[in-house]
Amino acid sequence: MSNKQVTAAIVTYNRLDLLKESLAAVLNQTEYLSHVIVVNNLSTDGTAAYLDTIQDERVIVYNSTENLGGAGGFNKAVQLFAEKLDDEYVWLMDDDTIVEPDALVHLVDFIEDNEHVGFVNSVVRWGTKDGHPSWMNVPAPRGFTWQSPLNSDNPGVEVVNSTFVSVLFSRQMVSMIGLPQKEYFIWGDDMEYTNRIADVNRGYTVLKSVVVHKSKENSMPGDIVREVDASRLWRYAYEFRNRILTARRISKRDMRHSALGAIRFELPRVLLKRNVKYRWQKAKMIVGGVWRGIWFNPKIEFAAGMQSSDVRSINAILRAYQLAHPTERMTLDREIELINHCQLEDLKGINQATDRFIMDYKVQMANKFKK
């Protein structure tokens, strides 16, 4: 067991009863917890008054003067962690996340015991610990390599990204990739951010770390076709806009697939499937969201004094290697070796195509991140 210290961060908006339960569970962790940041997104249900009564010195409260949305709340939480505290890790969650007493210890032990880990998340159940999986928080395992760390006392499954319902990453990672994208406002900021992390070092679901998500419904993520709650419709305009930028930051090809997928598959289902409620409002949100997403490209910001120059991209390394060795048959073992040990600079000087790609990539990154 290490002596690492962790800051938990909870973003809350008008769910006081759940916040009380969530905060109590976090403060009841068995190991590692040092601080808890609570970002109150201008709640109107007595949340601020309740937070004023807390005497536990570990709790740090930020009462926002505006509703920043979930994305803005997590942006502020990570910024406060980076600029005001010295803990090694930050652990993010919503105010309806109820963590088991040993959830944190399994996350920290896994990330400390395994090399090249960018983030770790928990297994998320819905309603109760024995409930079904929380479908909106089930991450996709990465093909073939997902079972690599299974044979250990604290197993993990490699995943492509994660929601902000119990995800942990390091201070060093924040310095390398910046802050969550506050401009998303709601939905998708967690996918984009953990995609960024996984392009530096991969992410894992730690199977022994369990939390409960007490969301109102156990719905699928972004399922606009089956949505029946009129009060939630406005969120889908953000969903489709944000989805395009998230895909673009993987590749232009992913962006095209994401945009075309929304128009070719989700839009016809909304318009033609039987018994779809609010079909015209939904169609407008899909088309408008995709269109805005094509032009939506806010820069990534960093916490003050925390922009690292020692940043690598797995995707860029693999692409540069392909250019440097165009006739080589890439095996999965070779790919894993490159991911774990290669730097982009190691591939310079092999041929002009590789050098040109590396130069263009560096220019692209300089334009992407805010100085």
From TrEMBL:
Chain segments annotated as coiled-coil in the UniProt record:
none
Concerning InterPro entries, the annotation shows: Glyco_trans_2-like, Nucleotide-diphossugar_trans
Pathway linked to the protein: Cell wall biogenesis; cell wall polysaccharide biosynthesis
Listed GO MF terms: glycosyltransferase activity
Kindly state which keywords UniProt assigns to this record, in alphabetical order.
Glycosyltransferase, Transferase
Cite the Glycosyltransferase 2-like domain residue spans from the record.
9-139
* Domain of life from the UniProt record: Bacteria
Q: Entry's Pfam families?
A: Glycos_transf_2
Q: Which family does it belong to?
A: Belongs to the glycosyltransferase 2 family.
What's the protein called, per UniProt? Glycosyltransferase family 2 protein
